[in-house]
Design goal:
CATH superfamily: Bacteriophage SPP1 head-tail adaptor protein
Distance between the termini: 34 Å
CATH architecture: Beta Barrel
Shape: globular
Number of domains: 1
Helix content: under 10%
Strand content: over 45%
Radius of gyration: 15 Å
CATH class: Mainly Beta
CATH topology: Thrombin, subunit H
Length: 106
């Protein structure tokens, strides 16, 4: 798949999109449990413009991932290479991919 980065991108890496599943425990309390959904992705370089834009918001642009837009359901947390990240910006592109800009959860 050719994307605007000027080279072919292969979604051959794996991340997990983390959503919150709400359940009820044995005494009726509502409990939120994280649910991880496997998603194929590609790690791409974070542009200097994005890095400085995040810095102006008090964030550190740690990782940028591309995923198939059909895999994305509004999740704001991503597990990648055994680290959990918060998505501070998601951008759906015209080519069927979504760019995830991530900062490490601290």
């Amino acid at each position: 798949m050719n994307v605007s980065y000027g080279y072919d991108v292969s979604l051959d890496d794996v991340c997990y999109l983390i959503s919150q599943k709400q359940t009820t425990d044995s005494i009726g309390n509502k409990v939120k449990t994280p649910k991880e959904t496997l998603c194929y992705c590609s790690k791409v370089s974070t542009s200097s413009k994005e890095f400085f834009s995040a810095n102006n918001q008090g964030l550190k642009a740690d990782v940028t991932l591309l995923i198939d837009t059909l895999s994305y359901n509004g999740e704001t947390k991503v597990k990648y290479e055994d680290k959990v990240y918060n998505a501070y910006r998601c951008y759906g592109r015209a080519d069927g991919l979504t760019e995830f800009y991530l900062t490490e959860s601290r």
